[in-house]
Amino acid sequence: ADPDPLQDFCVAILNSTISVNGFPCKPVPKVKSDDFFFDGLSKEGNTTNVFGSLVTAANVLTFPGLNTLGISMNRVDFAPGGINPPHIHPRASETGVIIKGKLLVGFVTTSNVFHSKVLKAGDMFVIPRGLVHFQLNVGKGKAHVITAFNSQLPGAVVLPLTLFASKPPIPNDVLTKAFQQQEVNVSVRDFPSLSLF
Ligand code: GLV
Ligand code: MN
């Protein structure tokens, strides 16, 4: 979904004082082989949080060599019963392969049709750009998945955090009317430091 590159590579300068759509390029003589390799997805994420899951991102912010190339990946770890809660990537479609465990993977179309399947190691899925999706660990042990995106920075709108943990909070009146509830259970609001992406 990102624009095409205009050169072989453009290793991002993340702390530049100029601001562009993406990041400016490190001068070519300063580029090192290490700019094109990243070991951040080799480590298991700490899933001790309300959702029992953790996303580790290999996007342009953590792996600057991805700048202008229109691709990125995540690793998502799950405790038993853990969920990667319903979310949207505004700038990318997603594909993924289960590395370990058993996950219920689902998404909902713009016509509100729900597609889902229980997947095991080696199985793949695709989530069309912009659609609400989740993964739930339905196996006995831990699970993890590697996902890939056609954007260097797919972005994530995590519905429970967007709706119930925004700062400042969305007025209760809006949420109770929107969800047809007498009151809104705001338990996620108790974890203001929680940020998954
Ligand atoms: C999974 O849905 C992910 O965004 O990595
Ligand atoms: Mn996703």
TrEMBL record:
It comes from Tetracentron sinense. Mn(2+) binds at H87, H89, E94, H133. GO terms for cellular component: apoplast. Keywords: Apoplast, Disulfide bond, Manganese, Metal-binding, Secreted, Signal. Residues 39-187 form the Cupin type-1 domain. This is Germin-like protein. Oxalate binds at N74, N84, H89, E94. The keyword Iron-sulfur does not apply. GO terms for molecular function: manganese ion binding. It is found in: Secreted, Extracellular space, Apoplast. The keyword Secreted applies. Belongs to the germin family. Its main location: secreted. Disulfide bonds join C10-C25.
